[in-house]
Amino acid sequence: MSRLRILVLAPEANPEATSAPLVGYSHAEALARIHDVTLVVRANNSKAVRSKGASFRAIQAISMPWLDKLFAWSFRRIFRNNFHSQALTVFTYPFSVAFEWHAWQQMKRRISAAEFDLVLRLMPITAVLPSAMAFFLRNGPIPFVIGPLNGGLPWPEGFSQVAEQKEWISSLRNVYRFLPFARSTYRDAAAIMVASSHTYAEFIQYREKLFFVPENAVNQSVCSDVPRTSERGSKLELIFVGGLVPCKACDLALRAASPLLRNDLAHFSILGDGPERSRLEELARSLGIEKAVSFHGWVSHEEALSRMRSADVLVFPSIREFGGGVVFEALASGAIPVVADFGGPGDIVYPETGYKVSLTNESDMVAQMEKILNELAGNRELLLRLRRQGMAFARERLTWDAKAQTTTQVLQWALARGPKPDLLPPKLPVPGIDSPGQKRQALHQTSASG
Questions:
Q1: 376/10 Cα distance (integer angstroms)
Q2: For the domain with range 5-217+399-445, which CATH number is right: 3.40.50.2000, 3.40.190.10, 3.40.640.10, 3.90.550.10?
Q3: pLDDT of residue 140
Q4: 175 or 441, higher pLDDT
Q5: Residue (of 102, 114, 30, 92) closest to 60 by Cα position
Q6: What's the pTM?
Q7: CB 3.0–4.6 Å: which of 253, 295, 412, 433 could bond 418 by disulfide?
Q8: What Rg, from alpha-carbon coordinates, does the chain have?
């Protein structure tokens, strides 16, 4: 496989951050190990990127001092440092366009001189922020590829967690289709990578150039080689990792585990913090399980991974989860995931590696998870088999190296240098039903990617 010369747009990529900035950096760094990557980032992220000494061909810093100051002030004073605000995503759009315009101004001579084989926009990850670069490149000498894109999951009905967290602006999401560059971004892209079955359905009109590539991955070092054995009769070690906010639904996890916890058959470690913590602590007391539940607050990533390796089951019933990076880490560490069959977790957990519960209603989800946990507590052979299969799956399919290889297949195809990769999502939209503008609920299982 020949090395490609890739101009990667990832303004927020930062190895010292978390969430999307870390995902963007990790993906770009994995590509740089097998290709000649020029990474384009915001100036305020370039120092952290350079400090890692990764094998990028070059790092191009885009400086927009006045705009960066305005954004930083707004983020601090208006959005109260809330990265998860949907209103913040809308506010980001003009800054995203400005970044790509400055990048184009700095790089267009080199692009026109064919110093690169293609341009890949890794960030922003959200599909509601179109790309100006696709428009600038429409008549240029090299193709434009975008993704993996994610987001846009609807808020499920019938859950109290939705009422507590849903923002009014979420009902206006489809307005992005009318933003400048919204049509040219996807019309002019040579290939579109999407990170979820839901996003695939949203862009089904571009199916001929649409590919499923999960948003997250794990470092090879996270993958365990030898699974921890569990002694027969020992307690089932349960773990939850994430922000204690309504949509993560940690309360459902506690309710589902409560029979085992009350009977001293399990212990539950909760890693994370947030506005729901006091309510969850009170719930544990009301269920009579407070002695079997440990609230650890935020811990370092290293400690979280260490505790994951000691756990039997990750109970993570988040009702609206885009990427689900913690599920990738659980599989790699040997913790069996029990997740809601929705969003990122629903796309990455298979019957051979874990459990998915239907997103029906709160009481039914609790009943489904309670049944699963009881089964695992009473069947150590099953637990060990799922653990081994999950770890093998993570080593083979879920590392950054594996993701870079998958992305390469898409890029080679976009350049007409390789066959079209077979990268379908686990849930395919039903023809004639799940087209853009219609509800995305009619999805069926397929074995195409299983």
A1: 42
A2: 3.40.50.2000
A3: 78
A4: 175
A5: 102
A6: 0.88
A7: 412
A8: 22
Question: Which tokens is 52 given?
Answer: 């890692």
Q: Is-same-fold flag (5-217+399-445; 223-397)?
A: yes
CA pair distance 184, 192, nearest whole angstrom:
13
Question: Is 358 in a helix, a strand, or coil?
Answer: coil
Give the start-to-end residue ranges of the domains of the chain: 5-217+399-445, 223-397
Q: Is the domain 223-397 a CATH 3.30.390.10 member? A: no
pLDDT attached to residue 84: 59
For residue 43, the SS3 value is: helix
266 token code pair: 């399990």
> CA–CA separation, 20 vs 90, rounded Å?
16
Which pLDDT tens digit goes with each residue over 330-342?
999 999 999 999 9
> Token pair of 6, please?
């890739």
**CB neighbours of residue 300 within 10 Å:** 8
Strands 210-212 and 191-194: parallel
**Distances from the Cα of 120 to the Cα of 4, 144, 165, angstroms:** 11, 6, 34
Cβ contact 211:190 at 8 Å: no
In this predicted structure, the answer to whether residue 43 has a pLDDT above a threshold of 80 is yes
DSSP class per residue in 308-376: HHT-SEEEE--SS-SS-HHHHHHHHHTPEEEEESSHHHHHH--TTT-EEE--S-HHHHHHHHHHHHHHH
Q: How far apart are CA 360 and CA 307, in angstroms?
A: 30
| CA 386 – CA 381 distance, rounded (Å) | 9
Cis previous bond, 124, omega within 30: yes
**Distance, CA of 308 to CA of 330 (rounded, Å):** 6
Q: Which residues, 6+ apart, have CB-to-CB distance to 265 below 8 Å?
A: 235, 236, 377
Residues 6 or more apart whose Cβ sits within 8 Å of residue 410: 145, 191, 193, 211, 213, 421, 423
